[in-house]
């Protein structure tokens, strides 16, 4: 680990130990090919209102359509993306596809938002804001249709530009969510310091919520805090109805999880929206 000093900001980064080994070189060239050839695709996981069960939006989660290894999940390549400084390329590839999807849904009469994940490395890039604002203009997408999620651990690193960029994005009308809340050791003052609209409670708290009093107490405390700060809460990783019912009774508004829907292709997400639309117009 190397300590870096820049202005007021002190952060630590991991110096890749095996930077030069053959595996890494191959992975790097594969990642570059993937960015050039458009092998990164968004999968969409629905977010829903816990009370009505209606879809309120989707989170885009990257998948790598690898030419020989099949469909890869972020855990297999996200760290390499960051260490090879390809974050902004990934972000822009995801963002373009998301903007196109929003336009398709708009055309079908589905008024949805899509949430994109970003890490601190992206925010610290001075081109990030321009990339986002140009994207909205070029694709004629309203700012409030795009949400951006940032993990708590991204903020901890205290990259110089993060706060500035988040404030600019917020001014543009983009909704911001603090992802994986509770896992990144962020101090609670971050909630005041940064302009977040949503807090996402990490799935590690939700998984034991029905049988662990302590986890339940933590979730309750987060919900109270969010209410006091006028923020909305999304519970991640809801895997069964009991968890949904309990969270609803505790006052949580939104949820995501395998119980409601796994990350899916754009076509499957469109089907889900179509079904919702049909059942709304023909209630059984
Ligand atoms: P995240 O943003 O916190 O996303 C939630 C993760 O939990 C996703 O994993 C999702 O598939 C999974 N999940 C959703 N519901 C459930 C559930 O009920 N149970 C369980 N066990 N898991 C559930 P995934 O897709 O593998 O993504 C992992 C992480 O990779 C994401 O965590 C996010 O931090 C990162 N990531 C994903 N896409 C992008 C991207 O485009 N850019 C960046 N920078 N990071 C991304
Ligand atoms: Mg997320
Ligand atoms: Mg999360
Ligand atoms: Mg996560």
Automatic annotation (TrEMBL):
Residues 24-277 form the EAL domain. It comes from the Bacteria. This is PAS domain S-box-containing protein/diguanylate cyclase (GGDEF)-like protein. It comes from Psychrobacter luti. The chain holds residues 291 to 574 of 574 of the full protein.
């Amino acid at each position: 680990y190397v300590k870096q000093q820049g202005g007021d900001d002190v952060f630590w980064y991991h110096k890749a130990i095996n930077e030069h080994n053959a595996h890494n070189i191959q992975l790097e060239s594969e990642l570059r090919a993937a960015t050039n050839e458009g092998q990164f695709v968004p999968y969409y996981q629905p977010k829903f209102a816990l009370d009505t069960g209606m879809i309120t939006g989707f989170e885009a989660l990257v998948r790598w359509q690898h030419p020989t290894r099949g469909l890869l999940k972020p855990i297999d390549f996200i760290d390499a993306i960051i260490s090879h400084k390809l974050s902004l390329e990934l972000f822009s590839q995801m963002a373009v596809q998301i903007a196109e999807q929003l336009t398709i849904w708009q055309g079908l009469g589905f008024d949805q938002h899509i949430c994109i994940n970003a890490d601190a490395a992206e925010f610290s890039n001075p081109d990030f804001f321009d990339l986002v604002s140009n994207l909205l203009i070029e694709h004629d997408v309203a700012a409030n249709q795009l949400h951006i999620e940032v993990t708590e651990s991204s903020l901890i690193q205290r990259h110089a530009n993060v706060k500035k960029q988040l404030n600019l994005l917020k001014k543009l009308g983009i909704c911001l969510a603090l992802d994986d809340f509770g896992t990144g050791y962020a101090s609670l003052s971050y909630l005041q310091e940064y302009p977040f609209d949503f807090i996402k409670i990490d799935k590690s708290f939700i998984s034991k919520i029905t049988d662990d009093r302590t986890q339940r107490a933590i979730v309750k405390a987060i919900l109270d805090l969010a209410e006091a700060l006028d923020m909305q809460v999304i519970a991640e990783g809801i895997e069964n109805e009991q968890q949904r019912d309990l969270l609803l009774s505790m006052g949580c508004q939104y949820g995501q999880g395998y119980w409601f829907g796994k990350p899916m292709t754009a076509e499957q997400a469109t089907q889900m929206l179509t079904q919702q639309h049909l059942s709304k117009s023909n209630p059984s």
